[in-house]
Design goal:
alpha/beta, 12 helices, 5 strands
Length: 250
């Protein structure tokens, strides 16, 4: 018993807290299964690594500022038959991030654009790509604030360094010309270096209204679409579907 407690204390000192907590149970399992010492040690260390990987993934998801967690498997493709599932499966390999290609998810509100963007972001995190999520309006406000405080270069470098940047809800709120220029600078900095995932409810022909300038809009789209995959979702809103279901139940 003294030796067991000493082993447990040593594991804790080494930061192997999962192994320390599982030590008694693993001894019992290995004894009943007649494991060798190597088998016992391997099973204990595998449990330690799995828990560390889980915690590390949770930390990186929090650091990415994702508003919630969604997986590709949770998306109802049957409800949105306009989507080419094979295209989503290809994006799910995260090869687009390796190739510094962009993804544009285009469609009306409520069709699951942000769900897919977050799901691709989580896959990117799992494949060790640094990832960050931000609403487009908030992004532009942050750039404007940094510009007025003479910190624009620093802020642009921060947003430009992520291997995968998710910019959500382009077009829900218009911006002024200064904001459009700053947004263009960020897109130009990321061009052919890193991947950006965009969600938007505006067709590309309407982006000039969002950014208040035809030339800036064209320059932004030119860099976004040069190496990109666009998924256009034509369907009903999930939120309206849930609302109708709830009211029909009543």
């Amino acid at each position: 018993m003294v030796e067991l407690e000493h082993a447990r204390a040593t594991l804790n000192d080494m930061g192997l807290t999962v192994s320390s907590n599982l030590l008694d149970a693993q001894i019992e399992r290995s004894t009943n299964a007649h494991h060798t010492y190597v088998q016992f040690l391997n099973e204990l260390l595998v449990s330690e690594k799995q828990e560390r990987d889980r915690r590390n993934l949770e930390f990186r998801i929090r650091r990415a500022h994702l508003p919630y967690v969604r997986r590709i498997e949770e998306y109802d493709f049957a409800f949105q038959p306009s989507i080419d599932k094979r295209l989503v499966d290809e994006l799910s390999t995260t090869a687009f991030a390796q190739r510094a290609e962009n993804v544009v998810l285009l469609g009306p509100p409520g069709v699951g654009k942000t769900h897919l963007a977050i799901a691709l972001g989580i896959l990117a995190i799992e494949h060790s790509f640094s990832t960050y999520f931000i609403n487009c309006h908030q992004l532009i406000q942050n750039l404007l604030k940094a510009s007025h405080e003479n910190r624009l270069d620093e802020k642009l470098k921060i947003y430009a360094r992520y291997k995968v940047l998710i910019i959500d809800e382009i077009g829900y709120l218009p911006t002024n010309l200064e904001g459009a220029n700053l947004f263009f600078q960020l897109i130009a900095k990321r061009y052919e270096k890193h991947s950006t995932i965009f969600t938007t409810n505006k067709n590309f022909g309407e982006w000039a209204d969002v950014f208040r300038d035809n030339m800036i809009s064209a320059a932004i789209l030119d860099r976004i679409l040069h190496h990109s995959t666009t998924i256009k979702i034509v369907g009903d809103s999930y939120r309206l579907k849930e609302y109708k279901t709830e009211n029909n139940d009543d």
